[in-house]
């Protein structure tokens, strides 16, 4: 077990975050900068949740979403019950979509188009090839997402796990590696916080996502490849349409 001290012991102390449009994205940016600058070395442990909450002045949800994004980007590894540790650069994927490239909702829409093409086929292959262990992982991920939504959580981490489980169920090791390319953009709501949407609307959206996940999982469980592809395509198309509507609202709200 790695006994290195938390990052604060190495002289890293984060100042409180100002309230930008997206606290999660800002915390990800700040921690990633510390890692890339070498102030956090491979094997170093990130500050605890409580320490990050105190230093950055953010909620536990923001901290957890930021760590999940860093993990998706390959910058940190998490160990259950121990914490998050800086990953070895040699183990990181060399190509991925950088969140800094996502300058507009139009960029997000293009990423979702890419996902529709790849993930629809992944769902079909998962239906054809899943074994008992893969199916159990998918069903557990769907249940965890449902529980998180009912608890009022953003369910980003649970959403990531659901898609990871499907990619793993294809039996093709290149599909999970594709997730490294997408990085944190796999779940755009962790880097995009549309300001024109009320909390109630976001909750209703997550409840619809929960139903879509259930249909995808059911099709995979029954071995219906065509139905699984269709269910995944409908799921991601609905996400694309949602962000397209938000892009339209933002455009209409701009002065002039």
From TrEMBL:
SUPFAM superfamilies: GntR ligand-binding domain-like, Winged helix' DNA-binding domain. GO terms for molecular function: DNA binding; DNA-binding transcription factor activity. It holds the Pfam family FCD. Keywords: DNA-binding, Transcription, Transcription regulation. InterPro entries: GntR_C, TF_FadR/GntR_C, Tscrpt_reg_HTH_GntR, WH-like_DNA-bd_sf, WH_DNA-bd_sf. This is FCD domain protein. Signal peptide: none annotated. It comes from the Bacteria. Residues 21-89 form the HTH gntR-type domain.
């Amino acid at each position: 077990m790695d006994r290195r001290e938390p990052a604060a012991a190495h002289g890293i102390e984060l100042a409180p975050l100002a309230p930008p449009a997206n606290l999660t994205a800002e915390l990800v940016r700040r921690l990633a900068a510390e890692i890339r600058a070498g102030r956090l070395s491979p094997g170093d442990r990130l500050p605890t949740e409580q320490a990050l909450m105190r230093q950055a002045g953010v909620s536990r949800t923001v901290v957890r979403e930021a760590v999940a994004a860093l993990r998706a980007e390959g910058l940190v590894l998490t160990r259950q019950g121990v914490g998050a540790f800086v990953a070895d650069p040699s183990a990181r994927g060399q190509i991925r979509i950088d969140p800094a490239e996502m300058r507009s909702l139009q960029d997000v829409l293009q990423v979702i188009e890419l996902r529709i093409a790849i993930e629809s086929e992944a769902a079909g292959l998962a239906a054809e090839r899943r074994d008992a262990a893969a199916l159990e992982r998918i069903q557990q991920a769907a249940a965890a997402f449902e529980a998180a939504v009912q608890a009022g959580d953003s369910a980003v981490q649970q959403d990531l796990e659901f898609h990871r489980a499907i990619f793993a169920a294809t039996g093709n090791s290149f599909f999970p590696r594709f997730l490294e390319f997408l990085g944190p953009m796999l779940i755009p709501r962790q880097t995009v916080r549309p300001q024109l949407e009320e909390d109630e609307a976001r909750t209703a959206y997550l409840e619809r996502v929960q139903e879509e996940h259930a249909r995808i999982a059911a099709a995979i469980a029954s071995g219906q490849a065509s139905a699984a592809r269709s269910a995944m395509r409908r799921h991601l198309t609905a996400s694309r349409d949602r962000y397209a509507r938000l892009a339209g609202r933002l455009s209409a709200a701009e002065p002039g």
